[in-house]
Amino acid sequence: MEPYELTASEAARSIRDGRLTSEALVRSCLERIEARDPEIRAWIHVDPALALAAARDADKRLAGNPSAVGPLHGVPFGVKDVIDTADLPTTHNSPIFQGHRPSRDAACVAIARSAGGILLGKTDTVEFASGGRKAATRNPVNTDHTPGGSSSGSGAAVGDRHVPLAFGTQTGGSHIRPASFNGIYGFKPTWGAVSREGVKHYAVSLDTIGWYGRSVADLALMAEAFRLEGMGETAPVPLAGLRVGVCRSPVWSSIEPAGEAALHLAALRLEAAGASVEPFELPADFSTLAEVQDVIRRGEGRAAFLDLYLGDRHRLHEELADHCEHNRGITARSLTEAYDVAGQCRARFAGLFERIDVILTPSAPGEAPKGLHTTGDHIFNGIWTVLHAPCLAMPCTHGPQGLPVGVQLVAPRFADARLLAMAGAMAAAVA
User: Fold this and answer.
1) 174 is catalytic
2) For strand 243-246 and strand 76-80, is the pairing parallel, antiparallel, or unpaired?
3) pLDDT tens digits, residue range 183-235?
4) Does pLDDT of 422 surpass 90?
5) Does 122 participate in catalysis according to the annotation?
6) Per its UniProt record, what PANTHER family does this chain match (predicted)?
7) Residue 19 burial by CB count (10 A; 0-12/13-18/19+): exposed, middle or buried?
8) Distance between CA 149 and CA 136 in Å, rounded?
């Protein structure tokens, strides 16, 4: 097995045990990028010399003090190009920010580095992770199809084994959906659990930083680096008797046959493995949350892009400029009403878990759509995003076109460690 094929958790363990060096791993990943990225186009900026120098330094530090290394020691990671990095450009896939060099790392990058991670490069994104220009990235399973978005490059880079870990962001479904389309694992923590300092805002009350890996253990490794509450203290969860609520959600009319088949198959596999599986419905007053998420996203988007609209209108994409012009008629009143509905539903959400432990629901309508003009529909993600709930995407099956289709697990706010533990028990049955 080539080093680039290792999952993040396997690589971290091999480095700590002395069976692999960080330099060998980074070099293998760079060779994989050189071979595959001309076709996949997941990366905007990669600096091989910088990454290799950091890897060599990591190897020296491990040799000098093996007991002091962090959970990500020597493991390379990618960063979505709306997240600031001090030694690589942050362009937001926008003509306004070409060549932009931030003065310091975003908080999430700084934390990953302090845990021993090696910054490998910047991955392509939809413009400002919001709209306008699409990423040039292609789906590695079938390059005629989208990898999803807006975390397009991060999802494809992990899916095509260019890098074992990568950061993405989610305001609607920009992180969970690409995980499904690329056949990988993705974790969107509880809103506010991970600092968004140094990341371009779209909707401040929705924007969340997450990460991709190729196993639940990979996701947990990064969660450990971020010291999410309960990490290292939560006991393993037995699958037998785990109460799983299968939620078609209020937007079920948007499901496609492949998405419905994946949800049904995951439920059957879990039940066969000993879990207690039952249908689960959200209360009637949750039925408008998809529209609520859209109103909040666009309402806050006006504030997020107003400075660029006023100062650089001729280079701001029409789709983004519209937030500052018509914005679909969203008013202060409609935004206030949306905030109120979201707040009321969030307050009730944890109480819905009296009879279940975790929600099983679609992560996308179905397979990745054909073409790069679209990143797919976030309809099955927006509800959970507006609820601020932690979400975990898990591979499940393939659709009729041979493309991956995953499912999504959802837990109450700040039950991140518990969700990762439950996903660890469920993964072998579902994937």
Assistant:
1) yes
2) unpaired
3) 999 999 999 999 999 999 999 999 999 999 999 999 999 999 999 999 989 88
4) yes
5) no
6) GLUTAMYL-TRNA(GLN) AMIDOTRANSFERASE SUBUNIT A, TRANSAMIDASE
7) exposed
8) 11
**Bridge-based pairing state of the strands 118-123 and 76-80:** parallel
Measured over all CA atoms, what is the biggest interatomic distance in the chain, rounded to whole angstroms? 61
Kindly report the number of other CB atoms within 10 A of residue 244's CB atom: 23
Residue in 22, 130, 154, 174 annotated catalytic? 174
> What's this model's pTM, rounded to 2 decimal places?
0.97
119, containing H or E segment: strand 118-123
Q: Where are the beta strands (DSSP E) in 184-319?
A: 185-188, 208-213, 243-246, 276-279
- Name the residue ranges covered by the structural domains of the chain: 3-225
Tens-place pLDDT, residues 321-357: 999 988 888 999 999 999 999 999 999 999 999 999 9
Q: Residue 66 and residue 171: Cα distance in Å, rounded?
A: 39
Fold of 3-225: Amidase signature (AS) enzymes (3.90.1300)
Q: 249 an active-site residue?
A: no
Residue 22 structure tokens: 């960080």
Average pLDDT, the chain: 97
Give exposure, 349-386, as e/b (b: 16+ Cβ within 10 Å). beebbeebbbbbbbbbbbbbbeebeebbbbbbbbbbbb
Q: Please, which pLDDT band fits residue 370 given cuts at 50, 70 and 90?
A: very high
Say if residue 235 is exposed, middle or buried (CB neighbours under 10 Å; 0-12, 13-18, 19+): exposed
Q: 22, 28, 130, 150: which is the annotated catalytic residue?
A: 150
Catalytic-labelled residue, pool 80, 122, 188, 200: 80
Q: Which residue has the tokens 């010399």?
A: 49
Question: How high is the pLDDT of residue 178?
Answer: 98
